Predict the structure.
Amino acid sequence: MDDRWNVAVLVGSLRKESFNRKMANVLCKMAPASLDLEIVEIGNLPLYNQDDDANPPPASAAFKARIAQADAVLFVTPEYNRSVPGVLKNALDIASRPYGKSAWNGKPCAVISVSPGAIGGFGANHHLRQSLVFLNMPTLQQPEAYIGGAADLFDAQGNLAKESTREFMRNFLTAFAAWIERNATASSARHANAAPNGSRAERAAQPPRSS
């Protein structure tokens, strides 16, 4: 049995050479042993339409089920016009609807913003947090991760070029792992049918099977 926390990683940029995707790839590789980080793609999702709530498009239904399966969520996003990219907001909407049946509810999360600019996507980071409050997602407060100067962050292989950045991200992931441990609860068992194996929290909430 895999006892790692399953973390869905959402990247707010669709650009092929996105700095945020590079950061997400790095984090997946350097995650502590207690975390299983996996990028969940959002670029193929249709625009949310409330008319589809009763019968959502297959891509939307699959995405919502994948989020329901996760123990936690990590957002890695750029800043567009002092806010979050539309593709990321669309993903939030899809998995939160219809009202009262949100797949995000109660899942611990963290936000990392990566930008070539000096303020490191501060506006997007905090605008996203407003939505996360309404979605009832306990959000890691410290350390804050506003990663600026992204054009110089990575080497030719997509690895972090500076040891100071690697150390900061390791510390961030360690804090996030502790945050998940503190906040992930058996309440996510309501989503146990979302996937055959379910999340770690779901498996822990299931009664023992007879032998």
